[in-house]
Design brief:
Blueprint (H helix, E strand, L loop, with lengths): L9 E3 L5 E3 L10 H8 L15 H11 L5 H6 L4 H4 L4 H4 L5 H18 L7 H18 L7 H7 L14 H14 L3
Antiparallel strand pairs: 1-2
Length: 184
């Protein structure tokens, strides 16, 4: 009798690299894998008017922060390239602790790989909230008053920006272009 195979503790990235989710190593992290995957992961679990990707969101956040924090802004959701994007109400459930541990380990490894401090800058935290509020306004089909957005995000949507979804390939290219532009 053939024994059942053990479940893998890694994922095979687009490049073919094996990323061990519970103990990631910097040499298995690849910016092209991150860009490719995030350009195919939809924000808000797909409850948007069009495919709005994590890659586009990441570029947007990176443009909202001071230049010194732009790479952090671009990579703030990079762990989602390996574990997907879960909505915050699910991520924050008490039983989701292991997801948060894996996400934090991946993000720490990504920071090490790209020379970032492990603590997310406050400018990125704020830019992420501004981006989410603007995304709610522009990309979700609900068209009521936006007081709920301010209550949900803690900030109002940006008045000087209007978002439209990018095609996946374009989002991937823009993510990689932004990454290259931020390299010393």
């Amino acid at each position: 009798m053939i024994a059942a195979p053990r479940p893998a503790n890694y994922i095979r990235a687009y490049s073919g690299k094996r990323v061990v989710l519970t103990a990631p190593r910097p040499e298995t992290i690849d910016i092209e894998d991150i860009a490719h995957a995030l350009a195919r992961v939809c924000r808000f679990v797909g409850h948007t008017a069009g495919l709005y990707t994590v890659a586009q969101h990441s570029v947007f956040v990176s443009e909202l922060v001071p230049p010194r924090d732009a790479l952090w802004g671009l990579l703030h959701d990079a762990a989602e390239a390996y574990i997907g994007d879960l909505p915050s109400p699910v991520k924050n459930l008490p039983g989701m602790g292991i997801y948060r541990v894996i996400e934090n380990r991946l993000l720490a490894c990504i920071c090490q790989c790209f020379g970032l401090p492990v603590s997310m800058p406050e400018s990125v935290v704020l830019a992420d909230k501004l981006a989410i509020a603007t995304e709610f306004r522009d990309l979700t089909p609900v068209r009521d008053d936006f007081e709920w957005i301010i209550q949900e995000c803690g900030v109002p949507p940006l008045l000087d920006r209007e978002l439209t979804p990018w095609p996946a390939g374009f989002a991937e290219d823009r993510f990689l272009s932004r990454f290259k532009a931020l390299q010393p």
